[in-house]
Write a structure and sequence with these properties.
Elements lengths: L2 H5 L7 H26 L4 H11 L6 E2 H7 L7 H10 L3 E5 L7 E5 L1 H21 L4 H14 L5
Length: about 150
Amino acid sequence: MTLEEAIKSTRFKDSRHKATLNILYTSYWLKAHLSSRMKEQGLTSEQFNVMRILKGKYPEQMCVKDIAGRMIEKSSNVPRIIDRLVLKKLVKRSTSKEDKRETLISLTEKGAETLETLSRIVNEINDEVLGINEKEAELLNELLEKLRKIDL
């Protein structure tokens, strides 16, 4: 589906304006696909993101601040997300031995297994939804990174 069909408009200031809307629309479209599959597993995309971040340090622990700094959506309420993951026994909390004020988070074994399942699902979605080849993906990555060189 073209952007014009999706938003029922053909009026754009210029191609860069259309590209901006296209990026925003595509981002929400992709997130909707991912979120619906995550929901089937009882998780949100933000919870998956926290677990993915923790997997990068597994079996080590991370403080909440470091997790928040690596989130895709910077406005996410990381402590609340962690609370929900603790209730599901996918992550566990502990207190830092060096600084008793600092809470450390780690992936549980159940969390690591769940993440492995979810990662397979995300890979399937990527294969289904992203209708581009490896070379096109590299070009898209370069263009998106070029956009983000200007830090707002």
